[in-house]
Design brief:
2 copies of one chain form a homodimer.
Chain A lengths: L2 H16 L6 H18 L2 H12 L7 H17 L2 E13 L5 E5 L5 E3 L2 E3 L11 E8 L4 H10 L3 E4 L10 H6 L2 H12 L5 E5 L27 E4 L1 H13 L4 E5 L3 E15 L4 E11 L9 H20 L6 E8 L7 H10 L5 E7 L7 E7 L2 H9 L1 H4 L6 E4 L15 E7 L4 H4 L12 H21 L8
Parallel strand pairs in A: 5-6, 6-7, 7-8, 11-12, 11-13, 13-16, 14-15
Antiparallel strand pairs in A: 1-10, 2-3, 2-9, 4-8, 5-9, 10-12, 14-16
Helix pairs in contact in A: 1-2, 2-14, 3-9, 9-14
GO molecular function (chains A, B): carboxypeptidase activity; metal ion binding; metallodipeptidase activity
Subunit structure (chains A, B): Homodimer. The monomeric form is inactive while the homodimer is active.
GO cellular component, one term (chains A, B): extracellular region
Amino acid sequence: MNKALLLVGMMMLSFAFAKAQSSNTRQDSTALRTIYNHNLTNSKSYDWLEHLSNEIGGRLSGSPQAQMAVEYTLAELYKVADTAYLQPVMVPRWTRGTPEIAYFKTTKGGKTKVNVCALGGSIATPAAGKSAGIIEVNGLEELEDLGRNAIEGKYVFYNRPMEATKIQTFEAYGGCVDQRYSGAEAAAKYGAAGVIVRSMNLRMDDLPHTGAMSYGDLEKEKYIPAAAISTNDAELLHEALKNDKDLQFFLQQDCTNHGEVQSYNVIAEIKGTQFPNEVILVGGHLDSWDLGDGSHDDGAGVVQSMQVLETIKATGYSPKRTIRAVLFMNEENGLRGARAYADQIFTKNQKHILALESDAGGFSPRGFGFDTTDIQMSQIQSWKSLFAPYLIHYFELGGSGADVGPLKNTGAVLAGLRPDSQRYFDHHHASNDTFDAVNRRELELGAATMSSLVYLYDQYGLATKLKK
Amino acid sequence: MNKALLLVGMMMLSFAFAKAQSSNTRQDSTALRTIYNHNLTNSKSYDWLEHLSNEIGGRLSGSPQAQMAVEYTLAELYKVADTAYLQPVMVPRWTRGTPEIAYFKTTKGGKTKVNVCALGGSIATPAAGKSAGIIEVNGLEELEDLGRNAIEGKYVFYNRPMEATKIQTFEAYGGCVDQRYSGAEAAAKYGAAGVIVRSMNLRMDDLPHTGAMSYGDLEKEKYIPAAAISTNDAELLHEALKNDKDLQFFLQQDCTNHGEVQSYNVIAEIKGTQFPNEVILVGGHLDSWDLGDGSHDDGAGVVQSMQVLETIKATGYSPKRTIRAVLFMNEENGLRGARAYADQIFTKNQKHILALESDAGGFSPRGFGFDTTDIQMSQIQSWKSLFAPYLIHYFELGGSGADVGPLKNTGAVLAGLRPDSQRYFDHHHASNDTFDAVNRRELELGAATMSSLVYLYDQYGLATKLKK
């Protein structure tokens, strides 16, 4: 941005310190303008994302790429924060191995190849793959009615689609993801050969979408392979099964669980001048799935969190409270980083007042979802008009982010950036979650919006009474 | 959608007719839910757009493709409206000819190719192209100071970029587009050899963006060629000129103005049951530029307008007022269709109460811009909460659409759909304005949002007093 304008902005920020809360609207408005201007003209976020996506690539927990991402972001954070350091955390390591093969064969002998991918954490099939019958269900709740006789020895095909009529696509995801996460555990109890899950994708395409699954309390010898099938091929299989209930499904995958390996959360902060023990946390997760390069999930959140610190430094703003960026490891298949971080803060004399996560893609920001109290929501609503020039309008109770979840009941307001969600699940956990799908301005506006909320919390701290 | 749910929706709509305005919130809410559900599950808009984009392609006024688009949309509108017809309109026909060539040569002889395209309406260069010096300016207002001595015989290079700090990108466009539209006319008055205009694009890339230009009142023999240069190459040229003010710029283009040819607006309507002479208009423009296939500009607006009629028919809603879709011809280089439409309505005994245009791309809808009075804005604001579940929040005075502009002062509320604008100018008038850049859900949500506003105007007509 223009240096003169920046100086004017900074001068007005200084005035803000001297004035009472009620008279600060103009100063806050100037501060937000300064933040947005910086992000839209001099942000580092897009270049950081390009490196993470194109130079490093997919960053599955425990992979060499995840370690490269730790080292790269630590080095970059050194440049923009007062201090940067690693928090060790053990993470599961799972590898996909050879790309998966799947097809179905009708009783007349017709063979149709379908696009599948192993779910994260799944076991392999036998080395030569496995053919079996397949039974379609609309969700876990149908298994009990079908019973062991219908299921045993067959693949279970979970085909409940995401509901297109949900405007907030995360709700549609929430309505289906139990099939992916718990489908294998549930089907294994009835002796299934494996599970094939319709991809969590609102779009009809040929890309299978991976994601975490769990065997829960199953004994290891009962584990069965689990794979996702693309939405187009889910429809194809559904149609084929209508005509031929006895068709045979073949799946071959050789993924491996390697146990636990050493990894790290990356943490950096700018120390508060007045209340250094009050922490405002921003974060995203460094790990990603392996099919794409994890640009939206969650490269975007990582670089936006880094950018909050860079924005503070570059605009010369001196925060009262400590502003900390945490790049969590292993959000995707274990949440180990988030748990380790939460465990640690309870042993320190620090109070978190805001924990803000960006993990919903680098799309145009719309606002925030909050997990907090009425008193705190009242404070947030009082800031709404400051965000109107930036078309930020969504400040609602409901949802924050997986990584900040373990900080619930610490007194912190938990929050999640809410970008426009319509295209998120087109890319989520699939091979097209790539750098070219992220728009620079949308990414930058997200970082500016996060920085603005951080600024307001830094100025005012946590409200202690309901605003009239 | 589910047929039973549709029936329930329709029953509740019937109740709405019998109730007073103030008690209709629940019925309106149900109606909007029905509209959104239909659009997100059974819309034709995306299939229509695929045909316009992939089967027909770029639809420049007077081209065979524009005529194909007239015939296709007329045939499709027959299927979903009570009546569909053509309104004849004469339009300018301009063709690009051979793809343009441009490079610059430094005084030391280094030659660098740059990406350019002729602006719409420009004349050709001499057949072998033309080399000349080039002088960079930051806008039209610099020409007078430079004067004829500095400009004569050279290309004028207009390099004022769109301002990245504008959140509403159309404002950034408005701050630059005079260079493209009037740059040649202004430079010709000082004897320039031609003009090279930085593309109206916030992104740095290699794609030149065309668009309309005008020679104004210039005598024909003073016309000079005008071309756009990509943003990356504008920067390249800017850097080269810093070191070498005497470098030579070469441009070769063989575009042609063919005079006027016959074309048509495509119009279709569903007749109102109670107030057939009160018209609610929805529209977009059928013509596009020739470099891409015009999917965002304005295939999206065309199919969304068609979809408003389809939604009314498919949900069984019987409008009180006449709902009319107008697919305007020649918005891009003349606005002939819009003027012809406006001229015609003054001769008919019909009152337009709303004229709503979609011409800002098929991105996630955020709301509407209105060109109207305080009384009408008060009515619109009273509907705001009905749109909240769909994350539609922007209802502001300011801007509507070029094609509905000539209807100003008819008493109609003029409105423009406002989708998220961050990515629009990445594609606008360039070769990447293509079908793959449009997301199905975002397109459908836009059509649903338009249909919802149409429904509310149909229910309540125009407010006649300020709402308390």
